[in-house]
From TrEMBL:
Belongs to the sodium:neurotransmitter symporter (SNF) (TC 2.A.22) family. It is found in: Membrane. Its main location: membrane. PROSITE patterns: NA_NEUROTRAN_SYMP_1, NA_NEUROTRAN_SYMP_3. It comes from Parabacteroides absconsus. InterPro entries: Na/ntran_symport, SNS_sf, YocR/YhdH-like. This is Transporter.
Length: 450
């Protein structure tokens, strides 16, 4: 293994980095709009079921693969199953990282535009309708969103190439709790708005009739996307875990925190959506047109939105770093090119994807693949196909290829910590998870649309 791969400073750093990888736009931007597009509470219910039954066990399994093999997303499979086709799971993950980063960087760029807007005082004194039209004018324009995408990829690139993870680690120790706090404040503001009843009903009272096969697929996709599972990120990160890191509790902590952030985001968004007459089905723009309305209602609104979008950008950054790292580590190690060169290859490639993803909100709006814009197609392909497929194969791999004794040894740190439901867990990943994911796929087969 090469020595210039990223390493984490401390035990807390490990947890924070993993939380940073998971918590990001997935919970704060994607989750609310998925809830909105998929009928509200019914989606939330399936999402939570998927998180507990699929998310947690798969995360533990990825931690196992990473720490046991101490290798990158593809290398780990090569180590554990040499001369087989299993590393394909890793290649699928690397490709997914690349594609996700392509559209994720666009939305990350949007957060920077809002930081800019807040600084220049442009977010105050507008009506709800203004926020919507302004956002649409911005996102559909050619130059600005691409510029911000480039800036965001540039920052990510700099961190990956210069290897300043330590700084990020230190920064996230302050920023992550700060983000959490500000989310809480915004939730409190939101639930004192007139639309609170409607908003919370939409979010929490399920209409079981709304649980369709496409809602189930979407909820499963959200679980994978939001927890960063099924594509090797967590394998890569776990390869840096210490031998005394408790893999089980780390997985539980990351999952709980991530779900909590998503719930807070939901509580923050939906009362406001109904108060300001915004469509819950607005799609990727939902958070960006809802939040400025809440800030408007607060004293020193611009200051709030400035702080919020800076923190959101940072949460996005800790995720883009992890995505970039998966692809860079792979190119660097697999093609034996210098790490800096690998980082450039990834950044340039991602930027090209980002340009198309960004333009698909404007000039390329009518260019569709299977009825989806480029942005939505990238999202669909990664979150709803590649990641669940990767997760399924990870379970099949460990279920078929790994001796249960070895699995248990690693997950209990050689017997020093208990694993109470080990047999249930082992049964889950060997049979239940692959079967469930397979069924959800089959159920949805042929319906390539939201
Ligand atoms: N989970 C991240 C988020 O919610 C996105 C992500 C997906 C990051 C896959 C890394 C890998 O924002």
């Amino acid at each position: 293994m090469s020595t210039d791969r990223a390493t984490f400073g401390s035990k807390l750093g490990v947890i924070l980095a993993t939380v940073g990888c998971a918590v990001g736009l997935g919970s704060i931007w994607r989750f609310p709009y998925m809830v909105g597009e998929n009928g509200g509470a019914a989606f939330l219910l399936v999402f939570i079921i998927c998180t507990v039954l699929l998310g947690l066990p798969i995360m533990i399994t990825e931690f196992f693969i990473g720490r046991h093999s101490r290798s990158n997303a593809a290398g780990s499979f090569k180590k554990l199953a040499p001369h087989t086709k299993w590393p394909l799971i890793g290649y699928n993950g690397v490709l997914a990282a690349f594609l996700i980063l392509g559209f994720y960087a666009v939305v990350s760029g949007w957060t920077l535009e809002y930081v800019w807007q807040a600084m220049s005082g442009n977010l105050s004194g507008k009506s709800a309708a203004d926020f919507t039209t302004d956002f649409q004018a911005f996102s559909s324009s050619v130059f600005r969103p691409i510029l911000w995408t480039a800036v965001f990829i540039g920052i990510t690139h700099y961190i990956i190439a210069a290897g300043v993870e330590k700084g990020i680690e230190r920064a996230s120790k302050i920023m992550m709790p700060a983000l959490f706090l500000i989310l809480l404040v915004l939730c409190i503001r939101s639930v004192t708005l007139p639309g609170v009843k409607e908003g919370l009903t939409f979010l929490f009272r399920p209409d079981f009739g709304k649980i369709t096969s496409s809602v189930i697929l979407s909820a499963m996709g959200q679980t994978f996307f939001s927890l960063s599972i099924g594509m090797g990120c967590l394998i890569t990160y776990a390869s840096y875990f210490g031998k005394d890191t408790n893999l089980q509790t780390t997985a539980v902590q990351v999952t709980v925190l991530n779900t909590l952030v998503a719930l807070l985001a939901g509580i923050m968004v939906f009362p406001a959506v109904f108060s300001f007459g915004i469509e819950p089905t607005a799609g990727p723009e939902l958070v960006f047109i809802t939040l400025p309305n809440i800030f408007e209602q607060l004293p020193f609104g611009s200051a709030w939105s400035f702080i919020f979008f800076i923190l959101l950008a940072l949460a996005a950054l800790t995720s883009t770093i992890s995505l970039h790292e998966v692809a860079t580590a792979y190119v660097h190690e697999e093609y034996q090119v210098p790490r800096k060169f690998a980082a450039w290859v990834v950044s340039i490639g991602v930027f090209i994807i980002g340009v198309f993803a960004s333009l698909s909100f404007g000039v390329l709006k009518d260019f569709t693949i299977g009825g989806l814009t480029i942005f939505n197609a990238l999202d669909f392909l990664t979150a709803k196909i590649m990641m669940p497929l990767g997760g399924m194969m990870i379970c099949v791999f460990v279920g078929l290829r790994i001796d249960k004794k070895i699995l248990k040894e690693e997950l209990t740190n050689h017997g020093t910590i208990p694993f109470y439901f080990f047999h249930t867990y082992a049964f889950f990943i060997k049979y239940l998870a692959p079967l469930a994911i397979g069924l959800i796929f089959i159920n949805e087969l042929g319906i390539i649309a939201y």
